[in-house]
Amino acid sequence: MEKFSQYRDRGTQIAPFLPLRTQTTALQSFTGFLLFLLRLPLFLFIAGAYLLVFHWLPIGVLSRKAWLWSILGVCGVWWVDLQVEGVKRGSLAQQSKKLPQPGTIIVSSYTSPLDAIYLAAIFDPIFTTTYPSTRLVERVSLPVFLWRYFTPPMLHPPPGAKMTPLPTLIGQNPNRTVLLFPEATPTNGRGILRFTPALASAPKQTKIFPVSLKYTPADITTPVPGALVEFAYNLMSKPTHCIRVRIGEAIYNVDENEEEAVCDAGAEALARIGRIKRLNLGVREKVGFVEAWRRNRK
Questions:
Q1: What is the DSSP string of 57-122?
Q2: Do the Cβ atoms of 107 and 252 come closer than 8 Å?
Q3: Smallest Cα–Cα separation from 195: which of 114, 270, 296, 145?
Q4: What is the C-alpha to C-alpha distance for residues 122 and 75, in angstroms, rounded to an integer?
Q5: Which residues of the chain are modeled with pLDDT < 50?
Q6: Do the Cβ atoms of 63 and 120 come closer than 8 Å?
Q7: CA 274 – CA 115 distance, rounded (Å)
Q8: Domains in the chain: how many in total?
Q9: Membrane-spanning regions, if any (predicted)?
């Protein structure tokens, strides 16, 4: 799509905001449609019951995780390829310190609503939203965060948003992991955007774990706002989906006054474990892309 060429990274020519398509045969399209019709009622029941009711009830962590895994199972996510940097396959049980623990920060790639569902099912973290204009973070619920995969990017917090310093949020919740998506807007997974500055306020002694998630097929990413129906169809019309999860070694914010240092380290770590490139694009460019995309669709 040459009309959106200005939103490609100049160094790599990667276009992280364009939706990805999967080529299918006529038979695959037909069977996919039937599979979607079969899965949709069960998905609406399980996902709706959790997001609208059970998420807000004190049902316990294990019950919440069971509901989330049920959602993933209905969608065809039956295989997760998990690797932890510095840990040999089969020895993860002896290397628990290599995984995010309560009191640590997860820095995740930001591509698909399955990011949030999978991480919630594994780590039960505190979800936060970051913005390019501030180091403060906004604590949000899982349902709210899932909805934001389908809303336009924002340079500033919305009116009335309750913003909190990251160290305060960690201190108030010592038994929880805090989850950041420093790119602050979803992409198609082809590259890592510039980070927002919130990570620079992380306490020096706090471990920061980079986590990369990639999907096969790759058309369940949501780089364009408003693609809820298309996402749901792509998700439930495929027989199976595989999530490739890579957890990097912990990094630290060695100098809270050097904003770019820890942001560069986090972005570099995500690019390395995800085997993708860092891009000189960010939320501001995504805002421009969304405006151009909407004009083109009229």
A1: S---HHHHHHHHHHHHHHTTEEEEEEEETT--TT-GGG-GGGS--TT-EEEE----HHHHHHHHHH
A2: no
A3: 270
A4: 17
A5: none
A6: no
A7: 14
A8: 1
A9: 30-54
Evaluate whether residue 119 is within a structural domain. yes
Residue 138 within a domain: yes
pLDDT on residue 2: 55
What is d(CA 109, CA 191) in angstroms, rounded to the nearest whole number?
Answer: 9
**Tokens standing for 99?**
């995984």
Residues near 158 by Cβ (< 8 Å), separated by ≥ 6? none
pLDDT at residue 257, rounded to an integer: 64
Token code pair at residue 139: 């604590």
Instruction: Return the SS3 of 20.
Output: coil
Q: Report d(CA 163, CA 128) in Å as an integer.
A: 10
Q: In 3-state terms, the chain is what percent helix, strand and coil (to 5)?
A: 45, 15, 40
Q: Token digits for 253?
A: 């914010």
Asked if residues 267 and 196 have their Cβ atoms less than 8 Å apart, the reply is no
Of residues 262, 103, 99, 257, the one with CA closest to residue 171: 103
Instruction: Determine the Cα–Cα distance for residues 117 and 222; give it in Å rounded to an integer.
Output: 14
Domain membership of residue 209 as a residue range:
79-297
Q: What is the pLDDT of residues 1-48, one digit of tens each?
A: 557 778 899 999 999 999 999 888 999 999 999 999 999 999 999 999
Which residue pairs from 182-185 have beta carbons closer than 8 angstroms and sit at least 24 positions apart in sequence?
182/107, 182/130, 182/263, 182/266, 182/267, 183/109, 183/110, 183/282, 183/283, 184/110, 184/129, 184/130, 184/131, 184/132, 184/153, 184/282, 184/283, 185/110, 185/153, 185/283, 185/286
Tell whether the torsion through CA atoms of 134, 137, 141 and 142 is positive or negative.
Answer: positive
Structure tokens at 183: 């790119």
Question: What's the angle, vertex CA 244, arms to CA 238 and CA 247, rounded to 5?
Answer: 155
Q: Is residue 49, in this structure, part of any structural domain at all?
A: no
Cα–Cα distance for residue pair 212/190, rounded to 1 Å: 12
